[in-house]
Design goal:
112 residues; mainly beta; Immunoglobulin-like; four-stranded antiparallel beta sheet; three-stranded antiparallel beta sheet; binds copper (II) ion
Length: 112
Amino acid sequence: MLYAEVVNATEIASKITGVEVDGTKRTMLHTTSRDSGGREIMTMVESVPLAPRATIRIAPGGIHGMIEGLPATLHRGDSVRVTFHLATGSVSAFARVADYADVDSLTSPRKR
Ligand SMILES: [Cu+2]
């Protein structure tokens, strides 16, 4: 899974049209919702709108990056380059590799 916070620091509307994680096969954007039985279901999304000055949280229970083909060479604490493809260009950043046990503490909303 890929979790992140994407900030549009501009006055121009954009959208996230894809995401790539270096060394992996592919990453899809999914949303999370619940079916009538309360089970979590994931649906692929083509793009995520990014309004001017908006912050999108790619976090557990919501939009997330579903990574396929994660190499065994990646370990907890490593950094991996992530590239977001936007309607207005591409942006890269480094993401930290974490265990599932760390996810809650790493993705809880930041105190401001
Ligand atoms: Cu998913």
